[in-house]
Amino acid sequence: MKLFDEQTGYEITFRQVQLEEDLERLHHWHHQAHVIPFWKQNFPLPVYKAHLQKLLADRHQTLYIGHVNGEPMSYWECYWAKDDIIANYYEADNGDQGIHLLFGPEKFLGKGLSLPLLRAMTAFGFRHEETSKIVAEPDIRNEKMIHIFEKCGFEAQKEVDLPDKRGLLMFCERTTFLRRWKDVNFIQQQNV
């Protein structure tokens, strides 16, 4: 999917992860100092490859690489909440989707890209008519990302003890999102 965000002037593209094309990139990104504390997937390459193969085979989620103006810079896991561990922490509806994300290259940090990308991926999730809620559970220590989720339209529900972290369960309702961003036009240029 390729979108042009009129508000920021960014061309934002999401494409599905391909094992051979993205393995080394994602392995490298998961070894970045700003990623390790929150993802804890800084495995040796053979272990990371097996991990990525398992993720790609998991039918309840789809993995994406996010690009800004043609440059790969973010990783996204989009999943159906009902089939995810998060469904143990709230009453998930069949259409609920969830997202995880990271920015890989350090040069993209602090550039004001988090909100436009999260907004675009959230809009992308709401393209499914049955989805009325997008969920997230950022690490409770990641105050910057929690702030970005809130700016996008996510609302804190409760803290949850997940197997790999203490997270803040957050919901973004379709009506809240559309009301907040009614003046933002995403121009879909083409499917990628």
UniProtKB/TrEMBL annotation:
Keywords, comma-separated and alphabetical: Acyltransferase, Antibiotic resistance, Transferase
Gene Ontology MF, one: acyltransferase activity
Domain N-acetyltransferase per the UniProt entry, residue ranges: 12-175
Alphabetized Gene3D superfamilies for the sequence: 3.40.630.30
InterPro entries: Acyl_CoA_acyltransferase, Acyltransferase_MbtK/IucB-like, GNAT_dom
Pfam families: Acetyltransf_8
Record's keyword annotation contains Acyltransferase: yes
SMART domains from the UniProt entry: AlcB (SM01006)
Function: Acyltransferase required for the direct transfer of medium- to long-chain fatty acyl moieties from a carrier protein (MbtL) on to the epsilon-amino group of lysine residue in the mycobactin core.
Protein's name according to its UniProt entry: Lysine N-acyltransferase MbtK
High-level lineage: Bacteria, Bacillati, Bacillota, Bacilli, Bacillales
